[in-house]
Each structure stands twice: as C-alpha cells, then as structure tokens.
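Hi R.,

As promised, here are both runs. First protein below:
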Amino acid sequence: MKTASLIKLITTKVKIAHISDLHFSGKKDRRHLADFDRLLDHFNADGVNHLVISGDLSNNADPGDWHLVKDKLKSHGFYHWERCTVLPGNHDLINLEEEMRFYNALNPLSVFGKWSFDRKLAEFTLFFQELISGDEKGDKAFPFVKIINFSSLKIALAALNSVYPWYPADNPLGSRGSITPGQLRALSVEHVLASLKGCFVLGLCHHAYRVYGTDSLIDQAFDWTMELKNREEFLEVLKRIKAKLVLHGHFHRFQSYTVDGIAFINGGSFRYSPQCYSELLLGEGSDFEQTFITLP
C-alpha cells in the first residue's frame, strides 16, 4: 500500500462535506444530476476543503454513472486528489439482476463470481485513479491513505473497500459487507502507523458498523442482509490507527453514533435527500464538530 505525499493547504479549520448513495441511473436522471450541480455549487460557495462520497455512485453497477459523477466533479473543481475522495458501494460493483440470472445459473462455483467482482473493483479503482493515488501511475488499490497537510492540522483519510461479492447463500442481496483481512493488515503495518502520527485520522468505508441492532426479528433479518460481517475486526484496526471518526453510507439514514469512543457518521442517501449532507469541521488536536445540513 502506498501512502500518498503531503499537500500543503492554508486554512484555519478544515471543512469536510460527506455525501453517500447517489444511485444515479444514467443521463436521463436529469433532476438528480441538477441537484448534484446545486450541491457542488454550495460546497464551493461554503468553502468546503474536501468532499467524501462513500459509495453507491451508480444504482446498477453501470460505469456510465461513474462518468457522470466524474464529469460533475471536474466541472465544479472537485476532481483533484486533495479535494475529493470516492469509494465504491455494493451498487457500484454488484449488478444483482445479472448475478442472479447469469453467474448463479451458468457458473455455480463461487470462484467465477469472485473473479467478476475483482475485475469490477479493479475497473473502479482504475477509473478514479487520480483521486486514489494523485497521479496516473501511483498505487490504485484499497486500502489507501491520503495525508493532507493543512495549516492548522494534518488529516489522514484511511479508505477501505467494504463491498463483499455476491453469493447465493451468504450474500443473496449483494448488500452484506466485509473488509478483507489483507486490507486490515495493510493498515496495521509499522510504516503506516508511523505515517499517521500527529494526524487527525478518519476511517472511510461504505458499509455501516451499526444498522438497527434491535430485538425485533424483522429488523434483525434486515440487519443480516446489510451488515458489515467483520465489524469487530474493523473496529480493532480503527483503534490501532487511532481513528477519531468513521464516515460511511449504505444504510440510508443521516445519523451519528459512537462505538468505543470512535464517532461513526452515516452520510444518508443523496438519492432520497439531495438537499442534505453531513458537514465536519476539524480543528487542532481531537476537536471536531459534525452537523447535518439541509439546504433551503
């Protein structure tokens, strides 16, 4: 894993906007594309330093929707390594209808589905390579760490892919998540831990650590279809890297909660609430403020 080089920016408090689950469905999705323009205009007017999009850019794993997002980010000046971070969601990497119709029927062995999934993930990381590595030649694999040096503090964005391949028994809706052991190990090696010293560390992934978590059998069944399977292992790595915040999406709620002293922020769904987003103001040390904003 490559830790990207530092970029010096001048500001007092770092303002991060967080959105998730755009679920675009092609160029005919004009109303939501116009809403996206409006939101990006607002981010520029409001002095947002960095934008995080935590997955599900597309609704049907269509790379054409990635193009739409990329073009919008470019036109508003956000398509730069230091200004934006984009993660894949399950809807970016898994076409559920295709999986159920083709792979399960013709390729019953899970290895074929895994091969297809890995190819789609590689396609995503190659497409957004500039936002991952900062150039066209750098390491473009997950996990990756961005370290951005502002005048008031140094932030580190530790990004992981939490999307898990579709399997008919273990992941029948394609919406369960898991972070591979290799990704978790990569964040735990000594040179990465050393690079994070003195940084305000934010963890990024698509899947929620917590969904409902109730005693209701219906909610528990829903939890199972949406859960991050190895969330406890993920939590241990977050503690190891001294993460203060985790930004995620997937479960379409704007919510914040705390687990073992780490704040988790759910970016909701742009698709269903295009006027809403999460704003973070990061100060020196461990100081931060988080607010859910609704545009008029």
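And here is the second one, sequence first, then its structure tokens:
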Amino acid sequence: MTQPADADARRAVKPVICYPNETLPLPDLALYRRAFGTARKTSEVLVPPREAACFHVPAGHFFRISSVDGPQVGDLNLWNAADLSERFYSGKSRALHGTHLTVGERMWSSFPTLRPMATIVEDTLGWYGMDAYGGAVHDVIGTRCDPYTGNLLSGAQYHHCCHSNLIRALADETGMSMAEAEPHVHDVLNVFMCTGFTRDTGQYFMKASPVRPGDHLDFFAEIDLLGALSACPGGDCSSEHTSDVAACYPLLVEVFAPSEGALEGWESLAVNGYDRTHGR
C-alpha cells in the first residue's frame, strides 16, 4: 500500500477532546463523604463465583462492592428501579469521562434521560493509575463476556459468562422470563478489571487485576437503583474471562443509609433537558 506524500503531516495533527467535560454538573464529594461517614448498613448480598445477584439502592444511599477471599472482577449493570428502560450507558460514560472510571466520575443513564445514576465516592485501587502497557482499572470499554462471542470464536456452549449470569439474576429478581430479561442486560462497568488497548494493534486486552481482599469501590445512588453484579468466571482475568478452571471468588455488595439530615440540600438531577423534537 502506497502512502500519500503528506502521510506524516496527517498523522501529526493534534487530537481534540470530543466532549470537554468542564461544564458537567459536579458531584458534591465532600457532602457525600460526610454523609457516608454517618451511614449504617441496611443490607448486603454476597455474589457467588461464576454467578450474579441483584440488589436495590434507594436514591441518596450508598453501595460498596468489595473483594472478599481472593482477587475477583465483576460486571455491573444498573437500572432505574422504577423503569428498566433507563439504564447505564457505558459508551456515553466513556465519552464523558474516559475509558476507566474512578472517584468523582459518574455512571450516566441512557437516552433520553442522560443523567447521573451513581457517583464513585471512593476507590481503593485509585493508586493504580495507568500502567506501562496502558492498562487501568474499572473499565467502560469491555462489553461483558457472553455466550454468543464464545460460540462464534470456539463453538462453545457456556452458560456462566457474565451476560448469562446477569440475565438469570434479573429474571429471578423481576419474575420475567429469560427471553424478557435478556434485552435489559447491557454493557457494563467492569469493576476491578484491569484492561486497555494494545499499542500496536489497538486490541482490547486484560491482565491480572491488582484487586485484593478488602479493596472496594463505593458509589452514591443518584436515583433509585436496581443493580446486578456478576462475579466473572475469569476470576482476576489474568488468563481468560470465560472459564470453569480459573480461580474465582465471591464479591460482596453492601448498601448503606445515611443518617437523617446528612444530605440536606441534595436532590436527584432532573432528566436531560433536550426537548426531543429532533428538528420537527
């Protein structure tokens, strides 16, 4: 393939940030942290290895996802508890914040609401940053391991990948059939997973997660949430993400209620203000 004469000049053009985020509504992290300091635990769910489980978090409450027993990554879905059509939009969260989320960044909801669903208030892996391979933790670039891609690549019929786990958990929680639940399962926040893109081919990669027992990710619920978390069958994803032989461990989800008055002045943000006329 012949390069054009100005190939180097074209490559040298400086990039422009697609969505400058300086005007995003900022979370009041100081308020959230003070409120979390007053909070009491109201419930917990232990997600078994290679399975998923659902949990509920009222608006203004907190939830924590913790590593227990051994290094383990998890795939997180969030919905508006009263309307499953409003759900986490990983692509727009990635466009607004970057490929990996951490403290002060938010999980945004799908169109047409496009509002914060949850805000990260503490990340014990925040020290990791970006490594020499371009890897970082808590990504919004991977979609979730699923049986369709596995079948496409190897002909496998594997039922405990995160996509299937999340479907079973949502069906059990809501009483929907598996067929009804599947369209509601969506691209995830890969909690604790260490990922990036290779420098030469641009391929999505994973590597052993730096998570250890006791590490946790804390969220503030900006609206009433239904969550589902899958303990990935890849364990720490050091070698593969769909496996019956990888060492896998449970993940703990805890929900906390702040004391009365601790969030005085706070309210959920309104749904997106676009008028939805689309030029007509």
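A quick note on the second one: Helices lie at 7-11, 29-37, 90-97, 147-154, 162-174, 178-181. Let me know what you think.

Best,
J.
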